[in-house]
From TrEMBL:
Entry protein name: ABC-2 type transport system permease protein
Source domain of life: Bacteria
Keywords from the UniProt entry: Membrane, Transmembrane, Transmembrane helix
Lineage of producing organism: Bacteria, Bacillati, Actinomycetota, Actinomycetes, Propionibacteriales
Signal peptide: none
Segments traversing the membrane: 20-40, 60-87, 114-138, 158-175, 187-207, 219-241
Pfam families reported in the protein's UniProt record: ABC2_membrane_4
Length: 251
């Protein structure tokens, strides 16, 4: 396992996809949210209505609520892109044949990919929260009040959930042997999540429940509904590991 982790960490450290996606997620989400603060003081009622939480409740809580909404979509896609790349790069670069010649099992390599992805994801989630805090202070929101701390926890929690629920992208990228298969699956899950929310069943859809919980809307998400994320993630990981164990070169 150690040799597999070293190999995958080395690949990720030199990967342009991981660096660019990480920067876009951290700076992109935080800059979008902080730039919206500039439009808060407006006399235009239509613009004020579009700003939503930045106007009411406003302040740090409103700012973080908007950040959570953006993270729910952009963050999930970003994590799905990197995970898809991790599990498809061997096929795209033609290095998959070499995996059959090394003393590390393919299942171990796949497990190492998941671990490396998890570490990268957690670092990105922490960096995003810190960037949001710094830009919020720079934008003049003032000292962080006590009622904003739970919102910060939900922001980080949503990032962690997004890291986990992107797991099916790894299986799709493996089966399709293409990064596009993983990204397409990620986008499809995002669309299905939106449909489930509109239909009023988002709380029971494991891919939508974390965002509804984090936004803290009138739609209550119970611990039971939130716990449904775990079997879905576990299934995605198990199916991916099995696919790598049964991997063949003749297809």
């Amino acid at each position: 396992m150690i040799s597999g982790l070293v190999m995958e960490f080395t690949k990720l450290a030199h990967a342009t996809v991981a660096r660019v996606t990480g920067v876009l997620m951290v700076l992109g989400i935080s800059l979008i949210c902080s730039s919206m603060l500039l439009a808060v003081h407006t006399d235009d009622p239509q613009l004020a209505a579009k700003l939503g939480p930045l106007i009411d409740p406003g302040g740090w809580v409103g700012y973080l609520t908007v950040a959570i909404q953006v993270t729910g979509a952009a963050g999930f896609v970003g994590y799905g892109v990197v995970l898809s790349w991790l599990f498809s790069r061997e096929f795209a670069e033609g290095t998959v044949t070499g995996l059959f010649a090394i003393p590390v099992s393919r299942r171990t390599i796949a497990a190492a990919k998941f671990i490396v992805y998890l570490v990268w994801g957690l670092v990105t989630a922490i960096a995003l929260l810190l960037a949001l805090i710094v830009l919020g202070l720079i934008s003049g929101l003032g000292p962080i009040p006590a009622d904003a701390v739970p919102a910060m926890g939900r922001q980080f929690g949503l990032s962690v959930f997004s890291i986990l629920i992107a797991a099916p992208a790894a299986w799709a990228a493996t089966l399709g042997r293409s990064v596009l298969a993983g990204i397409g699956t990620t986008i499809g899950i995002l669309v299905a999540s939106q449909v489930s929310v509109i239909a009023g069943t988002g709380g029971w859809f494991p891919f939508a429940a974390p965002a509804l919980w984090a936004i803290n809307t009138d739609i209550a998400v119970t611990p039971v509904q939130l716990s449904l994320v775990l079997p879905v993630v576990a299934l995605g990981v198990v199916l991916t590991l099995r696919s790598w164990h049964l991997l063949q070169l003749d297809r």
